[in-house]
């Protein structure tokens, strides 16, 4: 039986419907979060964390945050959630 993963998704669209700028915001945010990795996972400074990945959903840039980050590093998770809230970005939680 496969384990289901809960995710927090930040869409690059504001609550008022505008695209969030700059256009590379998702890659920048994922780069800042690259240091947060599962225990025993060797870090490569040129890769994203498996917990925070930039994505494109329906043609819009976004970030997918694995909710396990909340347990691994609560302040890092809070930083990402606060980023979305402070910039009035649309968010959702999902399970895959």
From TrEMBL:
It comes from the Bacteria. InterPro entries: DUF3579. Pfam families: DUF3579. This is DUF3579 domain-containing protein. It comes from Alcaligenes xylosoxydans xylosoxydans.
């Amino acid at each position: 039986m496969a384990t289901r993963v809960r995710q927090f998704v930040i869409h690059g669209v504001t609550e008022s419907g505008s695209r969030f700028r700059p256009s590379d915001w998702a890659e920048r945010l994922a780069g800042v979060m690259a240091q947060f990795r599962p225990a025993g996972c060797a870090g490569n400074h040129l890769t994203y964390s498996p917990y925070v990945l930039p994505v494109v959903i329906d043609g819009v840039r976004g970030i997918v945050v694995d909710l396990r980050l909340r347990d691994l590093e609560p302040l890092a998770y809070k930083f990402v959630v606060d980023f979305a809230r402070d910039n009035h970005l649309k968010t959702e939680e999902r399970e895959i």
